[in-house]
Amino acid sequence: MSDVLIVGGSPSESSRSAAMLRLVEQWVRESGLLTRVVSIRELPAEALVRGDADAPGIRESVNALATARGVVIGTPIYKAAYSGLLKIWLDLLPQYALAGKTVLPLATGGSIAHVLAIDYALRPVLSALGARHVVPGYFVLESLAQKQDDGSVVLAAEVDVPLRQIVAEFVGAVR
Amino acid sequence: MSDVLIVGGSPSESSRSAAMLRLVEQWVRESGLLTRVVSIRELPAEALVRGDADAPGIRESVNALATARGVVIGTPIYKAAYSGLLKIWLDLLPQYALAGKTVLPLATGGSIAHVLAIDYALRPVLSALGARHVVPGYFVLESLAQKQDDGSVVLAAEVDVPLRQIVAEFVGAVR
Amino acid sequence: MSDVLIVGGSPSESSRSAAMLRLVEQWVRESGLLTRVVSIRELPAEALVRGDADAPGIRESVNALATARGVVIGTPIYKAAYSGLLKIWLDLLPQYALAGKTVLPLATGGSIAHVLAIDYALRPVLSALGARHVVPGYFVLESLAQKQDDGSVVLAAEVDVPLRQIVAEFVGAVR
Amino acid sequence: MSDVLIVGGSPSESSRSAAMLRLVEQWVRESGLLTRVVSIRELPAEALVRGDADAPGIRESVNALATARGVVIGTPIYKAAYSGLLKIWLDLLPQYALAGKTVLPLATGGSIAHVLAIDYALRPVLSALGARHVVPGYFVLESLAQKQDDGSVVLAAEVDVPLRQIVAEFVGAVR
């Protein structure tokens, strides 16, 4: 059981999207909340593609969501929307899987031209899943997240400051 | 090489969405155009989940798109949007993979309440892929598509007539 | 000054949309909160069309929003989206006019096929206005709101019960 | 009667949006097509606000649309969507007013962050109006359109070239 589930929708472990999510997970943990991470790319691929919610690994991830009070949903923006990998996992969830939960949507993208994808593409899906309180999301421009040799990212100040603020608001809402 | 590529985004072979797409494929073929089918659920699952466009099977499906002049894109509506399975394949495509092609979006859903998902969720992604001519799509209410013992569907007249019309317009635009 | 501003985006005083909003205003008032109403159709038409935020009447309505903690936004669904009349008023507002406010979006429409317009069309605009907490909205099918001779509506039980619940949640969030 | 109707949704005559539309109108005219212009801000304000499609001026503009084969729809992007002024006119139209017509959507905005508003906000409304062929739209960043003393704009080359191409494609499709 955890307070906050961190769901990663990037197909690549070494992506900026994944690294940024690890950073956010750390901030949430440092605030005193218990966290758990679901990296969708590490779930059984066959079961994801066939939509088998009962497969081992998949079922655990769905249960992890059920017991969390807050959810961070991270996705790269591809083709003007969330990743297919994220949606394939959301499709496995029960109809109102986000009911009563506080949700923080986070996206990364190569161009500021994709920033509206959070509100026009991702939020309607979160609403359909019954989310009661989706806090303001945040879009991180990839060029402002510099990758380090150890796989982590260092955020430019213009991203670091507002993102910490967004995460703090989310933590407050989960409490 | 084919004139029209039919892309199926349903995770289940036995779904109404898949059966309807087989029917549409037959109509397109009967009109004299050459067709080819990509059932995303039959592509290598690992490669889909990792976004590996160069994997065998995946690469073939992407090439099949490159040589087609028309594309039918079929998806069930889940959580107020296209299926994650469809999007995971669209994410693998080159940036302007639909440039110069005529596209027909088709969706199936359990409630008429999801009909706007074609225009609000699917079309913006098709636009991002460079589609020049997306003909009017069509939403089939599942209760109007009756499944038969052999896996096919029989459409109610109120669906059969307009859907044939939509497909005929698409065929005309591809020619 | 008021606790809750009720904003009506229907161009017709005698519409079901307007009548439903009067009902919701009454419920909010009965909960002990102070309410104020802006019927956009009654604001100076010239100033609305020219986008003149400083015109008398317009400025008052913008100030009324600034001091409210909660906002109910009611709109009929036309052409798959919110009314132009609502948007013309939203366009007059300062960039983050909804920052820090709790917002309840309510829509009416002739077909359940338009229900996604709240989440796909209206919510992104409310997000752009800086809304921090948009509670779940509600779509009232017009055939379930029966107009009375006195201009009021009587809601069918299947609408009345969930709508009261939605309004109660909103009132709780404003408090 | 005209071949192409140019519809301007900017509330200000002196806006870049209005100036760009005059430029596009000129290009369409120079291609040999007959054009007509509807500046929504110049229509009777009271009738617009009350949704009175039969008022003089309004009715003429609706009839002008009915007889045109192509339509250019220009709007500034406000609050992450088309202008309310544009939508208030679209709301006055018969249900399938764009059926059989070729439509070119053009938007102007202060930030590239709003570019997705064409596809996520405007196109679904055009689809709901029955548009059969919406050609790729174009978003002009305001900083790339320099206003001249005479009220015209000079476009930077990086806008001028693709916009001329987009307009040429539209003209071809109308023919």
Q: What would you say this structure looks like, in words?
A:
- Four copies of one chain form a homotetramer.
- In chain A, 39% of the residues lie in helices and 21% in strands.
- Chain A has 175 residues and is an alpha/beta fold.
How far from one another are the termini of chain A? 15 Å
Q: Please tell me the total number of domains of chain A.
A: 1
User: What oligomeric state do the depicted chains represent?
Assistant: homotetramer
* Structure annotation, total helices of chain A: 6
Mean pLDDT of chain A: 95
CATH-scheme architecture of chain A: 3-Layer(aba) Sandwich
Strand content of chain A: 15-25%
Largest sheet of chain A: 6 strands, parallel
Number of strands of chain A: 8
Task: Jot down its keywords.
homotetramer, alpha/beta, Rossmann fold, 6-stranded parallel β-sheet, 6 helices, globular
What is the secondary structure topology, with strand pairs?
The structure is a homotetramer of 175-residue chains.
Chain A lengths: L3 E5 L7 H15 L4 E5 L5 H6 L7 H10 L2 E7 L7 H7 L11 E8 L7 H12 L4 E2 L3 E4 L3 E3 L5 E3 L1 H18 L1
Parallel strand pairs in A: 1-2, 1-3, 3-4, 4-5, 4-6
Antiparallel strand pairs in A: 7-8
Concise account of the structure shown:
The structure is a homotetramer of 175-residue chains. Chain A is an alpha/beta fold and 175 residues long. Helices cover 39% and strands 21% of the residues of chain A.
